[in-house]
Design a protein that fits this description.
The structure holds 2 protein chains of 2 kinds. By secondary structure, chain A is mostly helical. Chain A has 13 helices and 1 strand, in the order βααααααααααααα. Chain A has one domain. In chain B, 36% of the residues lie in helices and 27% in strands. Chain B has 8 helices and 9 strands. Chain B has a 6-stranded mixed beta sheet with strand order 5-6-7-3-8-9, with helices on both faces. The chains are: A mainly alpha, B alpha/beta. At the A-B interface, strand 1, helix 2 and helix 5 of A face strand 1, strand 4 and helix 3 of B. Strand 1 of chain A pairs antiparallel with strand 4 of chain B, so a sheet runs across the interface.
Chain lengths: 279, 253
């Protein structure tokens, strides 16, 4: 959309430039829509519950409590230093990834009716899912700090580094979300399959167990091939270990997130015209 | 690119041999496994379905242009091309200016949100910023006559109130091109008069209007020019009475 008043913009269907860049330009013009969609998701999610948005904070806390009780009673690694903080930080990062990628796909498939009626940059839905996730993970810092205080895990200035891992987590999730959204347009079953993949993937990532308990063989594969391992670890370091990450810990995550974002965005932008021809 | 300046001074919409081909799979292949098996067997077949077949015409600024034809003639597909929802599979579409789609009022509304929240959300879907919507907000609610309910969730609205709010948001955008798809029967009689009046105001201000309707009286009353589509093909185009007469003649009864 051109904002100049005297010369109305001309839309030319034959002008097919770089689709990925066009989409980026369009969605920047529609940034208000992304915010409004995120606002809608946050407001309506808990609209009919009494506690409302407090559930965003209660959910991870309850999950952490259950896991702490179960694992300190049943498995010995529940007794490692600051386990509640360890498990909560892992859960927050994982929940962000699982929720935003699922939401990007679901919003697009179910919100597709809207795309058939008016022009909307098609990445708006995925970006709105990410924005919603960012609000949630930001709010979750409150219960996280609470847990750290109670269990005596020191809160250090390294916490101020957290926006960096969160941003990389968001970039990775956006890439994956856009990629599976594209798949889901061709094969609706992808959304069901993805839920199963998520469960397996979560157990292959050290979220609720420390990486040390893994047998040597599988530890190598998990810590080297699982992109979520790098991202969760990067998010956890300033919280659980109270220190800044080293460059060796930071660089692979930057590379992984950038590659995911670029591939997801380009694939989605190039296939997004297909959405309208199907259904 | 054929021409440097694609549209003449007066033209706001031009279709050059535009065709739209939907791909309809022969059988619904909905799982990945099935798809791979069929792909290997070479059994993926598509029925291509021409929703629009080589349609060319242009609309000048300020025209009120009617589109007629039986169900499934391609009218909605044509509107989608102009609203940029679809890209033509062949040919070219040129559109100058902001298009306001009045396809279905309140399509993007959320029942759990209040009227106020929905106005801002709907405005964002039309590409407006928060500030632009804040400036329009009072006018929108005023026109819809919904001040008493604006902070109630939309699920408590009657269908007429829902449509009124939708119409009000969509027409407050001051578009260069207005697309109206079978929607002038919104609300009670008084509101219908009001919406017809608003559309006339758009016309007087020089906006171009595309109107789809099965109501020939309405088309005759509002449009100087009309086009008749049938099975994706442009059957006739020109002065409204002539096109309508030709269309009526083709109908079995």
């Amino acid at each position: 959309m051109d904002t100049t008043k005297n010369a109305p913009p001309i839309y030319d269907s034959a002008k097919k430039g770089n689709l990925a860049l066009d989409e980026l330009r369009e969605v920047l013009n529609y940034r208000n829509l992304v915010l409004q969609l995120a606002r809608r998701d946050i407001l309506t999610r808990y609209k009919r519950s009494v506690l409302g948005i407090a559930w965003t904070l209660l959910n991870p806390l309850a999950m952490m409590l259950i896991l702490t009780i179960v694992f300190s009673q049943v498995f010995k690694f529940g007794n490692i230093y600051g386990y509640p903080t360890y498990v909560l930080s892992g859960l927050l990062a994982w929940t962000f990834f699982a929720q935003t990628t699922t939401a990007s796909m679901v919003n697009l498939v179910w919100g597709g009716g809207l795309l058939n009626r008016i022009y909307i940059p098609r990445t708006s839905f995925a970006l709105a899912a990410i924005a919603t996730g960012l609000v949630n993970i930001g709010l979750a810092t409150i219960p996280l700090l609470l847990v750290m205080l109670i269990t005596g895990v020191p809160i250090t200035p390294a916490m101020l580094f957290l926006p960096v891992p969160i941003l990389l987590l968001a970039a990775f999730s956006l890439g994956v979300g856009l990629f599976i959204s594209t798949m889901a347009i061709y094969f609706p079953d992808v959304s069901e399959m993805y839920q199963i993949v998520l469960i397996g993937w979560m157990y292959l990532t050290p979220i609720i167990y420390p990486v040390e308990i893994l047998p040597e063989g599988s530890a190598y594969w998990i810590t080297h091939l699982n992109p979520m391992y790098y991202i969760v670890t990067l998010y956890r370091i300033p919280i659980y270990e109270g220190r800044l990450p080293t460059w060796e810990e930071l660089l692979p995550t930057i590379v992984i997130s950038t590659v995911s974002l670029v591939i997801g965005w380009v694939v989605f932008a190039n296939k997004s015209d297909e959405f309208a021809y199907r259904t | 690119m054929e021409t440097a300046i694609p549209l003449n001074n007066n033209e706001v919409i031009r279709l050059e041999n535009a065709s739209v081909r939907y791909r309809v799979p022969n059988e619904r292949v909905s799982t990945f496994k099935e798809y791979v098996i069929r792909l290997v067997q070479g059994k993926i077949k598509y029925n291509s379905f021409l929703a629009l077949d080589n349609v060319s015409f242009n609309v000048n600024k300020g025209q009120v242009f009617g589109l007629i034809g039986p169900n499934g003639a391609g009218k909605s597909t044509l509107l989608k091309l102009i609203a940029r929802v679809l890209r033509p599979t062949e040919g070219r579409v040129l559109v100058k200016g902001r298009v306001a789609p009045l396809l279905e009022f309140g399509a993007g509304f959320h029942p759990e949100l209040t009227g106020r929240e929905n106005v801002y959300l709907n405005g964002a879907m039309l590409g407006f910023t928060q500030e632009e919507m804040a400036a329009k907000f009072d006018d929108i609610v005023e026109f819809a006559e919904l001040w008493d309910f604006i902070d109630a969730p939309l699920r408590t609205y009657s269908s007429g109130m829902w449509a009124r709010l939708g119409f009000s948001v969509a027409t407050d955008v001051d578009p260069e091109i207005l697309i109206i798809d079978e929607v002038l029967s919104v609300g009670d009689e008084a509101f219908q008069r009001k919406s017809t009046e608003r559309i006339n105001q758009f016309r007087d201000r020089g906006a171009t209007i595309l109107l789809v309707s099965h109501n020939m009286a309405q088309i005759e009353e509002m449009c100087q020019h009309a086009a008749w589509l049938d099975q994706g093909k442009l059957e006739a185009i020109g002065e409204t009475p002539v096109v309508i007469a030709a269309y009526r003649e083709s109908q079995p009864y």
